[in-house]
Specification:
The protein has 198 residues and is α/β, with parallel strands linked by helices. The chain contains 7 helices and 5 strands; from the N terminus they run ααβαββααβαβα.
């Protein structure tokens, strides 16, 4: 384990001890704390993609066949967070999906939400290309990380779907099953995603 990993681990241990009585931790609070004193930072609601769709030029035939008002509106996406390395100018975009799920004491229908399905927009070729252009990670690395929180992280049906979708790229999702603790979240980032930003 390198010096930066040890430093991050020590910072997390300090945070965990000082906040042991707290209930659920937020992604932002955990990452902000473990990044203290490092070149990493976490930004809420990064705006670099907020108008990407409005800038898409459609084929002339499509433009003729649809309603085509002046493009003076905002139309894009805003991820929940961005993780930036100020030394390398590399960025990773994060979606945190909190959703109910089918767990002990609940009906199967408790897992009917589709937040996990909506996160699949990140896999689309056009969006990957646009996000890669800002992430500075190259064109071989997915520029996103999806963190699932709440009962969805323990739902047997949703876990099977997500594990199927992310086959071969498992580092790009994380099931934050016990969000009263951030150790596992920090460990996943340090082991699998931090190297992408170095």
């Amino acid at each position: 384990m390198g010096k930066s990993e040890l430093s991050g681990r020590d910072t997390w241990q300090d945070y965990s001890g000082a906040n042991a009585g707290n209930a659920e931790k937020s992604f932002f609070a955990v990452m902000q704390h473990i990044f203290r004193g490092t070149p990493y930072r976490v930004r809420e609601k990064p705006k670099e993609f907020k108008n990407i769709y409005a800038d898409i030029d459609l084929p002339a035939q499509v433009t003729k066949e649809i309603y085509n008002p002046p493009r003076d509106y905002t139309h894009g996406i805003v991820p929940d967070y961005a993780i930036d390395n100020s030394k390398t100018d590399k960025h990773l975009y994060v979606e945190v999906k909190r959703q109910d799920g089918w767990v002990e004491g609940k009906e199967m229908s408790a897992g009917r939400g589709n937040a996990h399905e909506r996160s699949n927009k990140l896999f689309t070729p056009g969006l990957i290309k646009i996000m890669q252009s800002k992430a500075n990670l190259g064109d071989k690395i997915l520029p996103f990380w999806v963190v699932f929180q709440g009962d969805i992280s323990r739902d047997p049906k949703r876990n099977r779907e997500i594990h199927c979708w992310y086959q071969g790229i498992e580092r790009h999702f994380f099931m934050w099953r016990d969000s009263t603790k951030g150790e596992a979240l920090a460990e996943h980032f340090n082991k699998f995603l931090k190297p992408l930003l170095e």
